[in-house]
Design a protein that fits this description.
By secondary structure, the chain is an alpha/beta fold. It contains 23 helices and 22 strands. It folds into 5 domains: 57 residues, DNA polymerase, domain 1 (Orthogonal Bundle), CATH 1.10.150; 94 residues, Nucleic acid-binding proteins (OB fold (Dihydrolipoamide Acetyltransferase, E2P), Beta Barrel); 107 residues, no CATH class; 188 residues, P-loop containing nucleotide triphosphate hydrolases (Rossmann fold, 3-Layer(aba) Sandwich); 156 residues, Rossmann fold. The strands form 4 sheets. The chain has a 7-stranded parallel beta sheet, sandwiched between helices. Strands 17-22-21-18-20-19 form a 6-stranded parallel beta sheet, sandwiched between helices. Strands 2-4-5-7-6 form a 5-stranded mixed beta barrel. Helix 6 packs across helix 7 and helix 19 runs antiparallel to helix 20. The protein starts with 15 loop residues before the first helix and ends in a 9-residue tail after the last helix. The relative contact order is 0.09. Bound molecules: adenosine-5'-diphosphate and magnesium ion. The site of adenosine-5'-diphosphate (ADP) has 18 residues, from helix 10.
């Protein structure tokens, strides 16, 4: 029988109440309890004699209980317990709150170890709520678990101890023996015992390495299965390639890289039984919109509707305007659907979509709400994909009869991570910029030079250019508005009194945002002071300078995105990074920006300097929650990549008996995301 079938309530000392508390932590079975890894460990260090304790520092003492526990009720119905303990060198008072059991746990004249923060005042030493153990229970490393109200670490430890003792002597390991051997990993039994109650540091490390490996491997295999899954055949057959007649109407020739990307997409839509699932990755300004438009054109000419989804209303509106222009020579109806439209307007747009009057719909998340229905969606395109997860992509795909899916991303991602984040997609790179682009000249300055920079901006504006100023970064929320407005007000007073300045920030209504953006696009506003809402995709060719305050607070990839707002036209362009942070790390990062304009190079450098946090960070990557692994562990990531390749080469669907355990884990991890695709 599997320990997943043994309820925690069958453990000793478990009443209904305690089982409910564990259930709040999503622990219902002994199996789940064993997989509830400690959050951290306390390494109780050397014992300090009481006489040598230092105020404010944590210490471990070994002392005998020398008074009875004195418990009183205090305000708010709370219980306060005090007891004195002593070693040969001195006496210290211990204070506990709301622990009814202290008097039964701490026996008079017995010795314990106490660990906690020491306070010294007029009355001598004290510790508040120290952890403690009987001498016989002392081991070097104690697990610390995430708790919920009402559950103490001690209760969890007691429960886990029982669970560990239930591990069968000969346990089936989900990792086959040859994998364990090849990657020098311990068995699951050893790992589970030592992740909770490590024999020593070395055993803990071995246990952790094995569990991290296992988790990455399961994640990786899940992604590969998703990618190889036999999608239902698409009913969106698009046998004819109409690309030629579309691109001949564009005001420019597509670059070879753009052409290749279109060819990849058209081939996917033409030849394959299953729908296209492709990522087109290209640096900022590489011309992904034109690729998307060509794909839309093919879709419509083959008799289907196309949807183009963008992460912000500004960007959706801009795509709408661009595509409307691009399709004006043809009899193709383009429409826009965004959240800020009035209900009646939205209803009308949706009506036309459902009747088939609209050929191409552009919009935000509003496109994937249930109310939006298509007559015959043939291709769904999402732009700047890092804001969409696996789940949202599949939601979009359910809007039609398995339509084709194309994802555009401007965030270059190092290959190792790309395989994870986009593991379920085929990938095409646009590795070439349209001809004639001049690299943006980038410099870093400190705030002493800010006035010079503002003077330079004035000069540029005087000669007809426009400019972005990205305000100091603030925490999300209310402050955003105030600080953006204050910052802009100061600029307007101090140096841009005679210039048209606009403000853009995340808290504005979309209508107002659009208005400001439009006025910037058509040149009415010369200087746009903005929070990072301009980060994604905005395209104004006349803008030639972007100045970024607090540049050190941004990730390199984000800076690169911001910089991509300029240098989009014929004008020589500049990026000014302002930072007073002189740390070596900052200097290194910002000088990378000054050195290169290549997004992929910057992404690699970012990964090297800061780890992969920025690539996952706040972004919704749509991957399952990891329990113990962490994407900064690139070595394990790499190892599991190769292990997964090997496993898939042996058994592409994991049906081989030796992978049974792994397959079960894959299903469990991906349960919430795959919509039953992994069967
Ligand atoms: P991104 O890949 O960042 O989304 P866009 O699609 O916004 O880039 O294109 C950036 C700019 O380059 C746009 O103004 C677009 O009109 C222009 N552009 C795209 N392709 C070409 C090309 N082949 N030749 C010249 N200009 C191009
Ligand atoms: Mg774009």
């Amino acid at each position: 029988m599997s320990l997943y079938d043994v309820p925690v309530s069958s453990l000793k000392g478990f009443g209904k109440l305690r089982a409910e508390l564990f259930s709040k932590l999503n622990i219902n079975s002994v199996g789940e309890l064993l997989r509830f890894y400690p959050r951290t460990y306390t390494a109780w260090g050397d014992i300090t004699p009481v006489s040598e304790l230092v105020n404010g520092e944590k210490a471990l003492i070994k002392a005998r209980v020398v008074t009875a526990v004195n418990t009183v009720r205090i305000s708010g119905g709370r219980i306060l317990s005090k007891v004195q303990v002593s070693d040969d060198s001195g006496v210290i008072e211990l204070v506990f709150f709301n622990n009814k059991y202290i008097s039964s746990m701490l026996k008079f004249d017995e010795e314990y170890c106490f660990y906690g923060k020491v306070t010294k005042d007029l009355y001598g030493f004290s510790m508040t709520s120290p952890e403690f153990k009987k001498l016989s229970e002392m081991s070097a490393i104690t697990p610390v678990y995430n708790l919920t109200h009402g559950l103490t670490n001690r209760m969890v430890i007691t429960a886990v101890k029982q669970a560990v003792s239930m591990l069968p002597q000969t346990m089936v390991d989900p990792l086959p023996y040859d994998i364990l051997k090849r990657y020098d990993l311990c068995t699951l039994r050893f790992a589970l015992m030592n992740i909770h109650f490590p024999a020593d540091e070395h055993a803990l490390e071995k246990a952790r390495r094995r569990l991290v490996f296992e988790e990455f491997l399961v994640l990786n295999l899940g992604l590969r299965l998703l990618k190889n899954r036999k999608l239902k055949d698409t009913s969106c057959k698009m046998p004819v390639d109409y690309t030629g007649e579309f691109i001949s109407t564009l005001p420019y020739t597509l670059t070879n890289a753009q052409k290749n990307a279109v060819v990849d997409c058209v081939n996917d839509m033409k030849n394959k039984k299953s729908p296209m699932n492709r990522l087109v990755q290209g640096d900022v300004g590489s011309g992904k919109t034109a690729v998307a438009a060509a794909v839309c054109y093919n879709t419509v000419k083959n008799g289907f509707q196309a949807a183009f989804m963008a992460p912000t209303e500004i960007l959706a509106t801009q795509h709408f305007e661009n595509l409307t222009k691009m399709f004006s020579p043809f009899d193709i109806k383009v429409d826009l659907l965004i959240g800020s439209m009035t209900k009646s307007k939205k209803d009308k747009v949706r009506e036309k979509l459902l009747s088939g009057e609209t050929d191409i719909i552009i919009g935000t998340h509003a496109l994937i709400t249930d109310a939006t229905k298509f007559k015959n969606l043939g291709c769904a395109i999402t732009d700047e994909q890092h804001r969409f997860g696996v789940e949202q992509r599949s939601k979009l795909q359910q809007k039609g009869e398995m339509p084709h899916v194309l994802v555009l991303s401007a965030t270059p991602i190092p290959r190792t991570l790309g395989l994870i984040i986009y593991g379920d997609l085929d990938i095409t790179c646009i590795d070439e910029l349209p001809p004639g682009r001049k690299p943006v000249r980038t410099m870093m300055i400190d705030s002493k030079k800010r006035n010079d920079a503002l003077g330079f901006i004035k000069q540029e504006v005087d000669s007809g250019r426009q400019c972005y100023i990205v305000c100091p970064l603030v925490e999300e929320g209310e402050l955003e508005l105030e600080s953006a407005e204050n910052y802009a007000a100061e600029l307007m007073l101090d140096c841009f009194a005679d210039y048209p300045v606009g403000i853009l920030h995340g808290k504005m209504k979309s209508k107002d945002k659009d208005e400001v953006m439009n006025r910037f696009s058509n040149g009415e506003i010369s200087i746009l002071v903005s929070t990072t809402v301009i980060e994604v995709g905005v395209d104004v060719k006349n803008a030639s300078v972007i100045m970024i305050e607090n540049a050190d607070r941004f990730g390199l990839s984000q800076l690169h995105q911001l910089r991509g707002r300029v240098g989009r036209g014929e004008h020589k362009s500049y990026c000014i990074l302002v930072s007073d942070n002189k740390s070596e790390d900052t200097l290194k990062r910002l000088s990378t920006m000054c050195r290169t304009n290549n997004g992929f190079e910057i992404a690699d450098e970012d990964l090297r300097l800061r780890g992969p946090g920025d690539f996952f960070g706040n972004r919704q990557h749509g991957l399952p929650q990891l329990n113990i692994a962490d994407f900064s562990d690139m070595d394990s990531l790499r190892d599991t990549q190769s292990a997964a390749s090997y496993i898939m080469s042996v058994s592409p669907d994991l049906s081989d008996e030796s992978f049974k355990g792994l397959k079960a884990m894959v299903k469990l991890l991906w349960k919430s995301i795959d919509n039953g695709a992994l069967n």
